[in-house]
Structure formats: C-alpha cells, structure tokens
Amino acid sequence: MKQRPPLSFARFWAIVLKEFVQMRRDRLTFGMIIGIPVVQLMLFGYAINGDPKHLPTAVLMADSSQYSRSLLSALKNSDYFRFVRRLNSENEAEKALARGDVQFVVTIPVDFSRKLLRGEKPTILVEADATDPSATGNAIASLRTAINSGLQNDFKGPLAFLAGSDAAVNLRVHARYNPEGISQFNIVPGLMGVVLTMTMVMITGLAITRERERGTMENLLSMPTRPLEVLLGKILPYIFVGYIQVGLILIAARFLFHVPMAGSIPLLLLTSLIFIAANLAMGITFSTLAKNQLQAVQMTFFFFLPSLLLSGFMFPFRGMPEWAQVIGEILPLTHFLRIVRGILLKGNGFSEVMLQLWQIVLFAAIVLTIGVKRYRKTLD
Amino acid sequence: MNGNIAIDVRGMTKRFGEHTVVNGIDLQMRSGEVCGFLGPNGSGKTTFIRMLCGLLAADAGEGTCLGFDVIRESEAIKRHIGYMTQRFSFYEDLSIVENLDFVARMYDVNNRRQAVQDSIERLGLAARQKQLAGELSGGWKQRLALAACLIHNPRLLLLDEPTAGVDPKARRDFWEQIHELAGQGLTFLITTHYMDEAERCDRLAYLSYGNLLTHGTAAEVIAGAGLTTWSVSGSELAELALQLRGIPGVNQAVAFGARLHVSGTSQHLLEQAIAPFRTEQHTWQQVNPGLEDVFIHLMGTSQDNYTL
Ligand SMILES: Nc1ncnc2c1ncn2[C@@H]1O[C@H](COP(=O)(O)OP(=O)(O)OP(=O)(O)O)[C@@H](O)[C@H]1O
Ligand SMILES: [Mg+2]
C-alpha cells in the first residue's frame, strides 16, 4: 500500500490563497491587524508616563514674603508642580481637592517668614490627592530637596546660619483619601468601570450583528418596529447584568480589599446606571456599524483598549501627554473612574459627581443618536 | 376607493450593483385572490416580495399595497401583512410559544395570550410548545413560521416558499387552510416551485431574470404560451429525446414520468419535425400542454433573451 503524504501542498496553497483573499475583503480585520500594534506602540511608547510631572497645584498663601515666593518657584522648578490657582481659604482647598481640580494644595502659614527668620522652623503643609498613589509618589518624594535647595539662595547675610541645614522649615505632607498609599484602593473601584466597559460594549455589540447573521433580522424588519425600540430593547436587559457586576465588585471591594466607602452607595448605584447605559449605547451602535459578529468584537476591543489605557486606570491621567488626555476626556470610563474613586475614597457628593456625570450622559446621547441613524431599516 | 385591490404596483425595479434583479414589474391583485409567484432560482421573487413589504428600498416603481403607498408608507403596510421568509427566521433559541408570543407582542395583538394559544392549537403543537424552535424538524419550522405570520390577522400574506420541505399531507392541509382564509378575504402571494401548488392558485405570475414573462389564470398562461404538445410513450425515450432536441420546430423534449412531452410553438413545424420519429416503437398522442410544459418553455425562452 502506498503511503499517502500527510499534507497536500496544492490543498494547503489553495487555503492560503483563499485566506488571503478573505482577509483582503475584510477591511476591518485588516485595519485591526495594523491598528492594534500601532495604537499599542503609541500608548506604551509615548503616552505612558509613570512619573507624571506638572501636576496642577493650588496655593493657599497667607504670607507673601520673598521667602514664600522662593519656595514656590523652587517647587515649580522641580517640574512636578504647576501652580494653577491661588486659594483664599481652607474650605476652598478642600473643594478643589475633592473635585479633582488640583492634585496638591500647598499652604504657607501667616507667620512663615517671621518664624523662618527667627529659626523657629515654620511648617509648610502640602495636601495631596493620593487617590492614585502612583500619581503623587514621586512629587511628594521630591518635596524636601526642592524646598531646601530653593531656599539656599536666600540664606545669606543674617540668615547665613540657616544655610546648609536641612531643617530650616518643617514639611508636613497629608496624603489625602488614601493615606497609606494602598494601590488597591485605587485599582479595585476602577476595575468596576473597566469590567463594565469591556463586557457591556461586547454584549450589545453582538446584538444586531447576531440577528443579521442568523437571518432573524429579515423577520424583525418585516414587523412594524422603529429603530429606537429595537436598540433600547436590546440595551435594557443588560443593565441588570451590569448591576450584577457592580454588586460583585462592590462586595469584593468591601470585604476582600477593605476599600473605604466614604460616600453614598445609592449615589454610586445611580451613576453606575448611567455609565452602564452609556456603554450599552456604544455597543449597540457598534452593532449597527459592524457587518458581522467578528467585526463587532473587534470594534469592542478598539474601544476598550484606549479606555483601559487612557482613562487613568492603568496610568496616572496627569502623566499622559496632552493629546492623550484629550482623548481620555471623551471616554466615559475616565469620568466614571473619577466618580467611583470620588465617592468611595473622597466621600464626594452629588455636586462633585455631576461635574463628571453630564459628560457621560452627553457621550451616551451622541453615540445612541449615531446608532439610531445608522440602524438600517432595510436589508440593503 | 379600491377596497378590493390588494396590490397595485407598477415598474418595481431593484438593482444590486450593475445587476437589475427585478426589472420594472407591474402586478395587480384583488383581495381574496391567491396568486402563485413562480420562476427559476434567482429570478427575483424574494427580492420583489421584500420590496413590497419595505424590506428593500426599490430603485424605481410606484403603486399601492393594501391602499398604502408602497414606497413611502411601508410602516403602515408592515402592520397589515404577514411575511414568511424563505429561510426560517424566527429565533431558534426561543421556544415555540415564546416565538409566537414575541410576534404577537410586536404586532400588539388584542387578547394576546388567547391568540397565541389558539395558534398553537391550530398548529397541533400544544404538547411541544415549550420546545426550542431550533430543535424542530424543517417541516415543522415552516408550519410554525406560517402560524406566526397569521397571528396578527394580516390582510395580505406574502409567503416565500412556505411549503419547501413540508410533507404531502401537511402541504394538502396547508393549501386547504389558504383557500379557507382566502374565502374570508385574505390575499395571498405565494412563491412555489411545485406545479401542483401552482394549479391551486387563482392566478399565476411567472418571473424570469427579473422580468415578468406572463401572468393570468392557469388557463390564460397556458393559452398564452401557444404550445402544441405531443406525449410519447414506449421504450428508449431518453434516446428519442436526444434525437429530437435541436431539430427545428421542436422547442423542448422533456420527460414526464414514464412519458416524453415534445412541444413546439408552431404546430405545423412540430408535426413536420416529429413525422420521421412516429414509428411502431412509440405511441404518439397529441395532448393539451400543462403548466409544467409552459414553464419549462418559458425558462428556455428567457434564457435565450438573456444571452442575446
Ligand atoms: N443582497 C443582495 N445583494 C446582491 N445580489 C442579491 C442580493 N439579494 C439577491 N440578490 C440577487 O438577486 C437575484 C434574485 O434573487 P432572489 O433571491 O430574489 O431570487 P428568487 O427568485 O427568490 O430565487 P429562489 O427561487 O432561489 O429563492 C439573484 O441573482 C441574487 O443573486
Ligand atoms: Mg427566493
């Protein structure tokens, strides 16, 4: 008996050619093959900065002496701090931190120069929004050196006795919201948004394409129904799925990771509803754009990747270059992360949450409008 | 106005790219009529039906369907028609009762539960109503689909090969049901490839490569073709058919069971052509051409037109 070769080259080659033809026809897959590595290179190569600089800082300056000014310019020269605002009260400082407007508040006390001149070691207070410890760690570490070297120039003449000493001023750092710098406190609540983004977009992304592929679309379209009915009808059931995920993560956060829950849980659940709906709207819109289920999955990833990388989940938001932040600001996950961390860690209330929430609502509305417009009422 | 006109469309045209798959079709149907829609595969039957119910946008054409503008008022049309797709298009992952219930909800049927139960009883599926539609045999899927199309009491039914794969008994029941409903004033447009079904229709329309070749009652269609047909019996008919084909005057020589039907458009030429073959070996007999002779003839001519 003749031994048959394990592989027919002709058949193999036929398949290779066929696959190439199919790949060429499927523009989107082809685009993804190119697009994903490009996006990843850009993100990991350029966008990601584990050592964020120029962090927005507010100053509460009760003493406006030459020494105070030297101190501020020393901080500025360290490159970690960018002064964006002067505050007038402790209350304002509190608000600015809670809303996330600034990362740091530097407080220079009234008697700063007097005490300095007397060698009484005045205290500089630096409050940091330490929700994400990796965003503030390096800046805080640099404080001591920056202050000392900044003041050295002023320690001349009568103040020469202070020169060289390390302890001309007291530095007090308050790492707010997450004083121990436990990164889980930052990551676990964030994970809620990430998981929702991934699954919600994917689930609904398949919704319309599945109908098309199984041929049930023809039947559905022959019935008297409007696009919005179909789209919203497919969104609603998954809101429950989303809530199950939210519940699971909250339970894990509470009992496994002991994440503090400073704010209102009902408020968190309400904002989750809007966030879930926004992601479902995104998914359903992908579904109207995609020709088949595979394309829908690919689109999901194309949305998920920047969400993951540019929202401030993986890397400190302020460590990203401007263009990446601009993209990040569009994504619902970015705002949801701020909301979740704000509510759980900072104890933020409705007014702080609204600052982020309306942007998610806007996103959902725009995306759903595109979906309704793109939903084909015919089979063409 | 025309309460008894169900469909009145003119010049319906659909192109896919460069191909015109439905080419300026006119069709009129009265309420209560059962119209058989015939034509070879790919002739545009499904495409035409999809345009009627607004599933495909027509590239040209105008008219009314159930009194609604066929181009602009497809929403209204959809409410009053039942469309049974050629390929089973209900949800295979829903049970029979869930599918029917879904349809009934979509059409906002009054007394929904009752309507669904009635429909299941009529189907004879009461015992299996919880079974997933995907698990049904092909024929049962067809029957489920038909039941689902009827649940909202449509006035016009567009049935795309509703009996494909259905057993003879069920097909007989199906046609009885159709005539009963037609008696109540429902209008049917039914595509089929079966001749016996074509004969049961009040009127026929024959489509080929997007063109409406003929329409009318079965008798009109047959008369319109102007065929003369001879039926031959005896031995070695296949051999005979081979010899006959291609002789001028013989348009077609087709096996019908144990007989051979030889047809031509000119009686004179046909008789000349067959004269040498009328030997002792075979019995020749002139017969009235049937629908199948006519349709096979139509298929042949339209192909000629296409290649010209
Ligand atoms: N979406 C489409 N895109 C391109 N061509 C199409 C499309 N749908 C149908 N066609 C073409 O239109 C022609 C008519 O198709 P249609 O399905 O209407 O035929 P049919 O008469 O229903 O055939 P059958 O008896 O096989 O069901 C065919 O040539 C088909 O290839
Ligand atoms: Mg068809």
Q: What class do helices, strands and sheet pairing of chain A give?
A: alpha/beta
CATH topology of the largest domain in chain B: Rossmann fold
Sequence of secondary-structure elements of chain B: EEEHEEHEHHHEHEHEEHEHEEHEH
Radius of gyration of chain A: 27 Å
Shape of chain A: elongated
Report on this structure.
The complex is a heterodimer of chains A (380) and B (308). Chain A is of the alpha/beta class and 380 residues long. Chain A folds into 2 domains: 55-176, abc type-2 transporter like domain (abc type-2 transporter like fold), CATH 3.40.1710.10; 183-377, no CATH class. Chain A has helices at residues 9-25, 27-47, 66-77, 90-99, 112-118, 133-152, 183-214, 216-222, 227-255, 265-289, 293-310, 322-330, 332-346, 350-374, and strands spanning 55-61, 81-87, 104-108, 123-129, 170-176. A 5-stranded mixed sheet of chain A has the order 2-1-3-4-5, with helices on both faces. In chain A, strand 1, helix 3 (66-77) and strand 2 (81-87) form a beta-alpha-beta unit. In chain A, helix 10 (265-289) packs parallel to helix 14 (350-374). The model of chain A has no long low-confidence stretch (mean pLDDT 83). The relative contact order of chain B is 0.13. Chain B has 308 residues and is of the alpha/beta class. Chain B is globular. Chain B folds into 2 domains: 5-221, Rossmann fold, CATH 3.40.50.300; 228-288, 2-Layer Sandwich (Alpha-Beta Plaits), CATH 3.30.70.100. In chain B, 37% of the residues lie in helices and 28% in strands. Chain B has 11 helices and 14 strands. In chain B, the strands form 3 sheets. Chain B has a 6-stranded mixed sheet, sandwiched between helices. The A-B interface holds A 214-219, 221-225, 377-380 and B 50, 53-57, 75, 78-79, 81, 83, 85, 87-92, 103, 106-107. The structure holds adenosine-5'-triphosphate and magnesium ion (MG). Adenosine-5'-triphosphate binds at residues 16, 21, 39, 41-47, 86 of chain B.
